[in-house]
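call fold(seq) -> tokens
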Amino acid sequence: MHQYGLSSPSQNARNNASIAPVKVFSAKVSSSNVGMVLVKPKLRQRGIWGSQRRNASLKMPVMRNIVILTGAGISAESGISTFRDANGLWERYRIEDVASPDAFRRDPDTVHRFYNLRRAQLSSVQPNAAHLALAALERGWTEGDFLLITQNVDDLHERAGSQKLLHMHGELLKLRCDGCEAVIRHDGDAGTDMACTACGRRKTMRPDIVWFGEVPFGLDQTSKALLQADIFAAIGTSGMVYPAAAFAERAKFNGRGCVTFEINPEPTGALVFDQLIAQPATLGVPAFVAAVSHPLGTP
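ret:
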């Protein structure tokens, strides 16, 4: 058994605190029974944050497999707008008008216009220190399996160098044909007059994005990875969108003694996290990478 140290960068962080009993998550995460919906996370009971010992160490089992989940917070630090921002692109549109199949059927031109603006924004942003740290962790991870799952639809993880990556909510730089299901890479503006390059049909191309009410991509792969995870980290995610909101609990109670981390400047208070780094991703992720990469007493 290796012993790993993690001193919380925030005075509000919790180290080695006891965790209140929770009901074990037992619902199977599969592509056949889940659509993307908003949920409220279970919150910590008062006092569960513990003694806040700054130099406490975290004893971990031998760690082989790691699963990372990233949310809007990591990309926001690069300048990508989120739909919870008070200002920015999402402020000009209602979610129900641009992020559902019904919206696309009602007004495809508005939906395409919205995603064209989001696509164009990618050229003005760059991967940040958190993206780069996760790519470095992947390259150096020889202990076992590594999977980075992102709820983000930008390409910042790819540009940072990540390869073992799953976009569960789709990608801005791809379009999908509703007629033949072909997926093509596309980095310019899209519209209803486009023809599918595979089948030739028009008015069938849509953003390759998982909208509310649709089933996220890769849930079978995700479920298998969570069941084998020894380390799970949620980075910059609100814990309010299901099924991603259930991933930490799925990993925590997989029977392998999985150690769970939350890296978030505004902690969710979810019951299932063993360690909290209450910092922005650009500060917290490098600290997390250092903690899981090096046992105490090693360089």
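The chain has nine helices and 13 strands.
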